[in-house]
Structures are given as C-alpha cells and as structure tokens.
Design brief:
four-stranded mixed β-sheet; globular; alpha+beta; 7 helices; about 300 residues; 2 domains; about 30% strand
Length: about 300
C-alpha cells in the first residue's frame, strides 16, 4: 500500500511539472527565424571604418540590388539581421562588437532581385534578414542560439480613464512593386505611415495616420530608458495619432512639467495609455562566439 501511495504521489508531481511546463507564457518580442533553404548575398564586402562612426544613423539606399549599412556596429547589424528591436535582445559577445564600425555592402542574386519585385515589403525584409544572417555566419563566424529570458520591461497598458483615441478604417494594403513612401515635413501623412520629429523647443513629436498601437512602440523606445516596451494594450485596430509630444529624457516614467511632458505623461494624457514597470519573458539571441571579419 505504501508503495502504491508513493507511486501515486510521484505521478502527481510529474503531472504538475508537465502542466507547469506547458503553462509557461510564450515569449514576447519574437526574433526572426528564417525558414526554407539558407540565402546568401552573391557578393558582399565588409570594410572597417573609423570607430567613432559606429553610432551614426544607418542609411539604406533605394532599390534592392544592394543593401548597404554604412557604417554601424556589428551588434546593430546583428540586431537588424535577427529582427531585434532592443539591445537587450542580443546577449553576450566581446566588447568590440559594440565599438568596431563597418561599411557592409551586399549584392542580391539576380534571380532573387527579380523575385523581390513581386514580394510584399515584409517578405522582402525577411529575405534580406536571412542573407544578413548568412553573412554574419560566413564572414564573422557568428555562432548563437535562442533563449527565452524574463527581463525588466515597460508594459504599455490602458490608462484608468480608457483609450482617448478612436479607431479608424484600416489603410489600403500596399502591393508588391509600390514605390516607397518618402515624406517631407510639409506633406500630409499617408494611411499606414508615421513620423517622429523635434519641435522648436526640442521636444519629440509623433504623428501617425491609420496605424496600429504596435507601430508607436519602436519610435518611443529610445526615450523609454533601457527597458523594452511590450504592447499589452489589447487594442488591435488602427488609429490616428496627432501631435503626441514629450521630452526625450530617456526615462519613460519621469515626472512631467507643463513645459516638458514626460513620455509616460504624454501617453496617458493624449492617448489614454500608460507605461508600467514589469518583467516579461522575452526572446533573446545569445552569442556563443564571433570573430572579427575575414578579409574581402
């Protein structure tokens, strides 16, 4: 009888452990996992440049014949290749990947270039990321693996008074071959587009036309501090956001003043959203090893 009770207790523990394992929440801020056969650039060049240029803005030229990232740190390139929004999603690696800057150019194979013209923008970006990952493996000997880690985050949630913006119709779907949207400061926003700029007082101003709440997260991220922002608002529609204005203090929940609204204060007052500190499971890329690039 005692043996039967022990076996029953052990079975119950195993059942509970299995339930706990399956009940674990799914990670958020998922990274890009390529599917299908690996893709590679037809020709790629990697040239080191002055270290103090590593933090400059990354510029992408028009067209798909060659994608140029000039210049940027390798940590930033890894983030681009794996679809990481925040630096916290790339873990480990030697210090030089934060400091060394490179001018990286890659020519897309002719057959893929032709196929690009028939792809959606999202599919085209996925193909480019896959080639970037191949370049990192070939030229930098990058070895890495994916993990889920519970990290400090800011959750974007509804404020007490509820949402202060009204849903609008979805923007028309952009088709393959449509020209890119180029905005000037005097142009009205097209549906599905947004912009961030500084006003004369040095405050950050965000405008969006028929966009999802998720589209707001990346532009406000740099002013939220060192925590990723996770959308827990529950709002899935499209919204117009007009003149969301805040001071770029680098602390999402800093105190507001009438002349310098904080990011948190601006979100709550203008949109009916707020940012709260939390910890959530986030997918991260862990660098096992990486070398400085092989010569061209």
């Amino acid at each position: 009888m005692r043996r039967i009770k022990l076996l029953a207790a052990a079975f119950a523990l195993l059942t509970l452990a299995g339930f706990a394992q399956t009940a674990q929440p799914k990670p958020e801020l998922l990274l890009f996992h390529p599917s299908g056969p690996p893709l590679s650039y037809e020709v790629a060049t990697v040239k080191p440049v002055a270290t103090n240029t590593a933090d400059r803005v990354v510029k992408l030229p028009p067209g798909v014949m060659a994608r140029t990232f000039s210049p940027l740190s390798i940590r930033s390139y890894i983030m681009n290749a794996y679809g990481a929004i925040y630096a916290a999603q790339v873990v480990g690696g030697p210090d030089w990947i934060n400091k060394d800057a490179y001018d990286i150019k890659g020519k897309v194979p002719d057959d893929l270039e032709a196929a690009f013209q028939k792809m959606t923008f999202a599919s085209r970006d996925d193909q480019t990321r896959a080639m970037q990952q191949s370049l990192l493996a070939d030229r930098f000997h990058l070895k890495a693996h994916f993990e889920t880690r519970v990290l400090p985050v800011y959750e974007l949630v509804p404020a007490k008074g509820g949402l202060k913006i009204t849903a609008v119709p979805a923007p028309p779907e952009r088709k393959p071959g449509d020209p890119p949207i180029h905005l000037r400061s005097c142009d009205p926003l097209s549906p599905g587009s947004f912009e961030t700029r500084h006003n004369s007082n040095g405050l950050r101003v965000f405008n969006g036309c028929a966009i999802k709440i998720q589209s707001l997260i990346r532009p406000i991220g740099p002013d939220a501090g060192d925590r990723p922002i996770v959308d827990h608002s529950g709002f899935t529609g499209y919204f117009d956001i007009k003149d969301l204005t805040w001071t770029p203090l680098g602390d999402a929940d800093a105190a507001s003043t009438p002349d310098a609204p904080s990011l948190s204060g601006a979100l709550e007052q203008k949109l009916g959203l707020k940012i709260v500190r939390a910890k959530d499971p986030i997918e991260v890329l862990v660098i096992d090893s990486i070398d400085r690039p092989s010569p061209n």
